[in-house]
Amino acid sequence: MAFRTTGGGGLLGLGMADRRIGSDRRRRWSAGDVQEALLISGEIPLWLVDGDDRVTFVNDAAVRILGFDRDDELLGRPSHDSIHYKHPDGSPYPAEDCPITHATRRGEPIRIERDWWVRKDGSLVPISIHCVPMEIDGRMGTAMTFHDLTASVQAEDERRRLEVERARFGEVRASRARIVEAADVERRRLVRDLHDGAQSGLVRVVMALQLALGDGDLPGEVRTLVGDALDNARRAIDELRELARGIHPAALTHRGLASAVRTLADRASLPVVVEIADERYPNSVESAAYFVVAEALTNVAKYARASSARVTTTRTASHLVVTVDDDGIGGARPSAGGGLAGLADRLAALDATLTVSSRPGDGTQIRAEIPLSTATPTIAATQVDSPRYGIRRLA
Ligand SMILES: Nc1ncnc2c1ncn2[C@@H]1O[C@H](COP(=O)(O)OP(=O)(O)OP(=O)(O)O)[C@@H](O)[C@H]1O
Ligand SMILES: [Mg+2]
Q1: Mean pLDDT per segment of 10 residues, for the chain of length 395 residues?
Q2: Quick check: is 162 in a domain?
Q3: Shortest-distance ligand to the CA of residue 343
Q4: Fewer CB near the last or first residue (10 Å), C or N of the chain?
Q5: Is 363 in the pocket of ligand 1 (CB under 6 A)?
Q6: What is the dihedral of CA 150, 156, 161, 166, to 10 degrees?
């Protein structure tokens, strides 16, 4: 309104420096003039209110953002009650509580980084707003420029959503790793209990039976019975040891990966070359690596028809890389429920990967890349510090 009626004053209705429209105007344009021209051209939403908080001018950009069709739908109406009358939660926003209205009435500038204005259809649009007191047609009023923050609010929401998702994903990964670690700890405990409990009980039985057999006066049929009992007790110890090895080999706990893998290689039905440094790794890493080698060597014996196999480990800055190669028939195909798929699941819980390369006729390579940092520190520390295991502290 003010702009339209001030004629030769151009933007002067805003109470800015006096300027004339004329041939010298171009010469005298300043950055401020350019900015004003942009406002009027409609690029930057502009909203003018008088001292009574009534809308006196809105440019096209403001009309557009607020979802109106024409400026005369707004001109003359109370500003706050037209576009600022509710909070984002839908509760009423009385003009008395509105800092913009107060600033307008007091003739003070105000800047609000995030506010919500109400569109014609009642939806809310996030804006930042800059209000400057100005003289309009001889009366004090306020010029407001604002920016639609919809895009940045959406980007911010998206960033927050991704952050929450990342955090959740991190928690899930950490908890999966903890579950694997807890299972390993439980396996070690079980093996220790078997060793200290049932196995040592059987060892005492064996010793007692050996003593009994040493008695020269033992009647023949009793001697036979005691001999059988001794054989059975020894077999039970062997079976118990075998069972414990399958659950969690004591060599792995006490002497580490290289030693445990050498034991596996010694028991294999074909020559197995082992190239593993005598180095200790976190418990979960050693267990994962061991079970990869155990499953791969079992598969070699069962399916590969190989003449030899080779197990290597390489330590990179971040990973332990384990490979098991054979020169057999190839064609290994992991499938649901099989040992290789189970290994892949176990490794995934540690953020490790399993790769099976096995072209028919070209041997098989199983390769696991296990992050060295997956061990959950509290549990690992408890284990490695425990004098019972006699394990030195791990890096
Ligand atoms: N080194 C290998 N050479 C040739 N074929 C292999 C080799 N390893 C695995 N395979 C083939 O891939 C299949 C999948 O192996 P995987 O270990 O996943 O399961 P599985 O050995 O059959 O079952 P499980 O491991 O539960 O005893 C095997 O059935 C076998 O046919
Ligand atoms: Mg298998």
Answers
A1: 32 38 44 61 84 89 94 95 95 94 86 95 95 79 90 92 91 85 88 89 94 89 94 94 87 92 93 95 93 95 96 96 97 90 89 94 96 56 31 27
A2: no
A3: 1
A4: C
A5: no
A6: 160
How many domains is the chain built from? 3
| pLDDT for position 52 | 86
Q: What separation in Å is there between the alpha carbon of 344 and the centre of ligand 2?
A: 12
Among the candidates 248, 275, 301, a domain finishes at: 248
- Domain-located, residue 174: yes
pTM above 0.70, yes or no: no
Residue nearest to atom 19 of ligand 1 (CA): 338
Q: Is residue 21 situated within a structural domain? A: yes
Q: Which atom of ligand 1 is nearest to the CA of 300?
A: 1
Residue type, 249: P
Tell me if 361 CB under 6 Å of ligand 1: no
If 0-12 CB within 10 Å is exposed, 13-18 middle and 19+ buried, where does residue 378 land? exposed
Do 350 and 264 lie in a common domain?
A: yes
pLDDT at 260: 94
Flag whether 305 is in a domain.
yes
Domain boundaries, position 375: 251-395
Which protein residue's CA is at the shortest distance from atom 7 of ligand 1?
332
Nearest CA to ligand 1 atom 11: 332
Q: Are residues 263 and 200 in the same domain?
A: no
346 plus 296 within the same structural domain: yes
Q: According to the model, what pLDDT value does residue 29 have?
A: 53
Nearest residue (CA) to ligand 1, atom 30: 332
Ligand 1 atom, smallest distance to 342 CA? 18
What is the 340 CA–ligand 2 centroid distance (Å)?
A: 6
pLDDT of the residue at 35: 59
Q: Tokens 């928690």 — which residue?
A: 171
> Do 42 and 136 sit in the same domain of this protein?
yes
Task: List 321's β-bridge partners, or say none.
Answer: 314, 369
Nearest bound ligand to the CA of residue 364: 1
- Predicted confidence at residue 36, as pLDDT, reads 67
Cβ pair 290, 322 in contact under 8 A:
no
Whether 352 and 261 share a structural domain: yes
- Check pocket membership of 356 for ligand 1, CB cut-off 6 A: no
